[in-house]
Structure formats: C-alpha cells, structure tokens
Amino acid sequence: MSNRPKIFFVSTAIDYVNASPHLGHALEKVQADVLARHSRFLGQEVFFLSGTDENSLKNVQAAKKEGISVKKLVDKNSQKFYELKNLLNLSFDDFIRTTEKRHIKGVQKLWLACKKDIYKKKYKGLYCVGCEQFYKKKELINGLCPEHKVKPEIVEEENYFFRLSKYEKQLKRIIEKDELKIIPETRKNEVLSFVEQGLEDICISRSSKRAQGWGIDVPGDSTQKIWVWLDALSNYINALGYGDNNKKFQEWWQKNHNKLHIIGKGILRFHCLYWPAFLLSAKLSLPKTIFVHGYLTSNGQKMSKSLGNVIDPFELVERYGTDAVRYFLLREIPSTEDGDFTYKKFEERYNADLSKGLGNLVARVMTMAEISKLSFILKKLSKPDFLDSKFQTVVDKTWKEYKKSLDEFKFNESLREIWKLISFCDRTIEKERPWEKSKKQSLVISELLFALTNIAEMLKPFLPETSEKILKNIRQLAEKTKKSKPLFPRI
After folding, report:
1. Per-residue confidence band for 305, with pLDDT thresholds at 50, 70 and 90
2. Can you give the CATH number for the domain in which 394 is found?
3. 362-376 residue pLDDT tens
4. CB 342, CB 299: distance < 8 Å
5. Range of the domain at 414
6. Number of separate domains in the chain
7. Which of 30, 224, 340, 357 would bridge 353 by S-S if both were Cys, CB 3.0 to 4.6 A apart?
8. The predicted structure's pLDDT at residue 151
9. Is residue 324 within 8 Å of residue 348, measured between CB atoms?
10. Is residue 358 part of a domain?
11. Considering the domain boundaries, does residue 375 fall inside one?
12. Active site residues
C-alpha cells in the first residue's frame, strides 16, 4: 500500500444521449465504481469522472424524430444518465456534460494547442453517423459499418484535418513499451496492428451545415464545428480545469501518473491512438492505463439502442435491487470479454449465488450466534486469537487472491474468490454442525462470524449496500437488537 500512488484518476467513457441509458452503459459505470471504492479503501485520494456526450449529430436526428429541440432532448436524457448514480450506487466525484461552458472552453483551447498539426482540405468519404467517423471501404463488412451494421453515407466537403500520421512512430513506441498500457493484451495488439497498416491524417471538423448548427465552433471559423470525438475526448481534462489551467488540472492530470480510462472495445481507436496524439500535439500528459471491456449482449447480440434490444436498468433495479444488478454485471460478465444477459441467467445467478449462497450463509451464522448467545465474542473479531491455523490460512489466501484479481481488473475472479470463502464456510457448518452443543461450538461460530466480517469487507467495492447490511447485522447481534430481514429473498 505504501508503494501505491497517493492519488488515482479513473474515468468512464461519456455516453451519447440520443436515447435513455441501457444496461450496457451500467456495466462500465459499475466497473469503474468498484475500482474507485477499492482505491479509497487502500487510502488513495480518488477522482472518479463520468458524463455525457451531447454534441453528436445523432442527438440532432433523435430530437427531430421526437419533435423537440436538441437542447431539450440532451437535457432530458443527460439527466437520466446522471440518475444512474443513485440507481446503481455509483460514487463518481464529477459528471461532465459536453454542453457545459467549462467543456466548450477546454475543447477550443485544445484545438488551438494542436493548431500546428491542423490543416484544411476538401474530402470525400464514407461516414457513419453512429460512430461519428469516416471509414475506408475495406473496413466495412458487407458494405456496412462494422459497429452499427448500417450503410455509411457519402460525405464530400471541405474540413479541417489533424496530422495523425506525424505521430505514428511515437504512438507505436509508447504503446509497445507500455508507457500507455492497454489492457488486455489482445486489445494492445489490435491497436498496434492498426498502426502497422499506417496512420493517415484524420478529419476533425464538419461543416456547420451538415452539423445542422449543433456542436462547438472551430475557433475563428464558425462555418465549421469541431469533430465530436475531439470534442468528447477532451472531457477528461476539461472536468479537471484544463480550460483555466488551474491547480486541480496540474495535480490530477499533468503531474499524476495514475490515470485510468475505462472504455468499451468499440471506441478503442479513438482512445488509444487519436486521444494520445491530440495530447502529444498539445504537449500534455498522457493517461497511464486504458482498460477495455467487452460488450454486454442480449441473447447473443450486442446490446444497442440502434438494434433495439436494450434492457432498461431502471426496471431491472426496481425488480431485483441495486446490488443484485451490480453483482450480475460484475460476476457473470468476464471483465475483458463479451457477456450475455437473459432474465433466466440473471435469476439463476441471483438464486444460486445471492439467495442460496451469501444470503443463506449470513442467515445461518447469525441465527446460530443468537441462539448460542455469542455476542460477547464480537468485540474480539477485529483481532481474533481464537482462529485455528487452517481457518486463518483460508481467509488470508482469499484476501491475497481477491486483491490480485482486482489489481488485474478481473472483477469476476475477485468475486469468485469471495464465493469460495462462502463455500468453505458452508462446508465448515456441515462438517462441524455448530447448531449442536459441543466443546467446539463457540469456536466454530466465532470463526464463522470472523469470516462473515471479512466477506463483508471484501464486498464493499462490489456490493456496498449488502456489505453494510452484513456488518450492521453483526453489530446488532452484539447490541442484541432486532433481527434483520433476509438479504436476498429467493425469486
């Protein structure tokens, strides 16, 4: 712990607000929240950032479809994304909207800082509005955008371009040497493979006419709007005060070597190549790590607003509870791969792991402790002198593997370690039968209470409400107060 950096910056990608959030958006937010909470537990000062991307042409199109102004649409949907904070018990410290003055100021400042690498030319290409980027013909799949499965439109106009090609060798070296560490390795290799094909300059503006007047003006040229990705990517520094170059920006970005972006695999190129290139051009510090997760699928298909197969997180939480939703996302979905959601899978995981597993263990141990009048032993749980060596070894090993998995962003494996400890406790109960009076009864129940305390501590970043309930149950046992309700009633 003493060797860890004192401060930790963690961000999610900012989301398009052309529609309400779906469960796929929740996955990334919850992953980031676990890391933020865990880092605070380790004694680090944390800045956890999230937000919304509001200057896309998709928002203009969505507003027209609804028959409302673009501002009304982005205000409405941005609020829904912000409400994920309470819904999913997220602990982010700031939520930035790209229509805010602090963001607009920072975007235009970044443009000017990169001006030596910006030029204007006429261009014709295949443009996907969903991705907000141009594609080469060879990058399409059956003539369709590989991400959104739609035919790109042909766009021809005069735009500003950024000299990405200038930074090809530097980007390759930075990524190869892990100066910008991309996790997992497969995504790092994917980025390097793209670099090997040769980096071409990228279009970083669109005409105000095509943008339909929505977006941030290019400094000194109101006929052009800044490309939404140059706009959006700068949110990470704008939230820290880049526009004013304040002390916060210097401390949390420029001088901080512990900066993490959490993103989905579909926006890999933007974050791992374009974003660092803009920063290099502007002579700004780079992020340290980019963690790339897979997609949340629904019956095998990517969960997407455009595909219409989304799951509403608000309805899911109302039906099953916040921590049940957090648990499924973190346990069922491999952290760097795609994972599938079905209600059947959700309920099976809920009943097996939460109701029968954790909930049943807590209920059994608390009941035995109450019957055995063992509340006096609780005062010693923080520094137990009663554990046998085997029990202590299992608890210590669980903590070691749990922390190792978290350091590697393997959320599902960290939870698996906790549930191994739960299974160990269940086996101990079956073997020792502590509900029966014996010489070892007090010892066994005390060990189980100690295990529950440790389980609750491990669950803090993952299931914060559940963790607090377990610890409260143990405190109430000591205080001999009213027995609590089951943690996860079977469904």
Report:
1. low
2. 1.10.730.10
3. 999 998 888 776 544
4. yes
5. 343-479
6. 1
7. 357
8. 81
9. no
10. yes
11. yes
12. 22, 25, 128, 131, 145, 148, 302, 305
